[in-house]
Write a structure and sequence with these properties.
heterodimer, A: 114 residues, mainly beta, seven-stranded mixed sheet, four-stranded antiparallel sheet, B: 114 residues, six-stranded mixed sheet, globular
Chain lengths: 114, 114
């Protein structure tokens, strides 16, 4: 079946540094990928839609300069959290349309900013 | 705008019994998809079942079935013969007309008791 690989699974970084999270579709091409953020015991909130070869579409309230999204190829989308602060600590998860009914999700990245 | 409501923050069920997780939705789109995902404590999102808005029959996937009542705008998940491994968060989700965005409910934490 379709697999989306996301890494790192966990990352701890210092406040003020940037962190890059990768999302790869391993056995299919994904022109569109989605990035979500999930706070503890809460639901997934869509942050942005990543489109291969074009700019990402951000949801209202999401700072595009803080959460940089790059979708340079049909199998890779990256989310970079720039100048991270403790309030950016969260679970970030990507998904892609693998052609089936259910979108395939990555395994998520737990970001802790100290 | 789309909205998904899960009114049960937590549920308990005895092993081997059936359990129903509630989901209601609101949308103005004439065509949409309804999904259920399972999220174990490890964080990954596991696709369980899909129901298209024009599907005449309720979807079934093994022990999972979706009780779709279009007029009432509900899409409840039924898990038969619960197993200990079913303990997890369960999210109801809906995709819009273009199936390019997911809107998630707040989730239901299911605990299966031995």
């Amino acid at each position: 079946g379709a697999v989306v690989s996301q890494h790192p699974s966990r990352v701890i970084c210092k406040s003020g540094t940037s962190v890059k999270i990768e999302c790869r579709s391993l056995d299919f091409q994904a022109t569109t990928m989605f990035w979500y953020r999930q706070f503890p015991k809460q639901s997934l909130m869509l942050m942005a839609t990543s489109n291969e070869g074009s700019k990402a579409t951000y949801e209202q309230g999401v700072e595009k300069d803080k959460f940089l999204i790059n979708h340079a190829s049909l199998t890779l989308s990256t989310l970079t959290v720039t100048s991270a602060h403790p309030e950016d600590s969260s679970f970030y998860i990507c998904s892609a349309d693998s052609g089936g009914y259910g979108y395939t999700f990555g395994s998520g990245t737990r970001l802790t900013v100290v | 705008a789309q909205k998904i409501t899960q009114t049960q923050p937590g549920m308990f069920v005895q092993e081997k019994e059936a359990v129903t997780l509630d989901c209601t939705y609101d949308t103005s789109d004439p065509s949409y998809g309804l999904f259920w995902y399972k999220q174990p404590s490890s964080g990954e999102m596991i696709f369980l079942i899909y129901q298209g808005s024009y599907d005449q029959q309720n979807a079934t996937e093994g022990r999972y079935s979706l009780n779709f009542q279009k007029a009432r705008k509900s899409a409840n998940l039924v898990i038969s013969a619960s197993q200990l491994g079913d303990s997890a968060m369960y999210f109801c989700a809906m995709s819009g007309l273009n199936f390019n965005k997911f809107y998630f409910g707040s989730g239901t934490k299911l605990n299966v008791k031995p």
